[in-house]
Amino acid sequence: MSVIDGVSGRPAEGVEVSVLGRPAGEPGRRLHGFTDPDGNFTYSSETPKIPGGGGCYDVELDVDAYYTSQGIVAGYKKVSIVVRIDGTEPDYRVGTFITPFTHATWSLR
Known about the structure:
Blueprint: E1 2-5, E2 10-11, E3 16-22, E4 29-34, E5 55-61, H1 63-68, E6 79-85, E7 93-98, E8 103-108
Parallel strand pairs: 1-7
Antiparallel strand pairs: 1-2, 3-4, 3-5, 5-6, 7-8
Domain Transthyretin/hydroxyisourate hydrolase: 2-106
Protein name: Transthyretin/hydroxyisourate hydrolase domain-containing protein
InterPro entries: Transthyretin/HIU_hydrolase_d (IPR023416), Transthyretin/HIU_hydrolase_sf (IPR036817)
């Protein structure tokens, strides 16, 4: 997950990201963390991976907390994205461009 701040035009560091995985009918498992200085939230060796590979994943960004920390009142509390992963690729990238009142999302495989 990569997050770009549309107000500053720079990577959004410190956005809380939550991922709920529901691969192939298994019980959901939630991971969360914060974007790094490059605006990226990635799995690290210390982060447990969501099992299964393919399936649907709910990705949630806490836009309100991020902009509140900058003294800006956001129109959105959270941005939620549901992503389908088919499990055939070793890496997936989802990007989001956020502002206090709009967002856009893209995906690369």
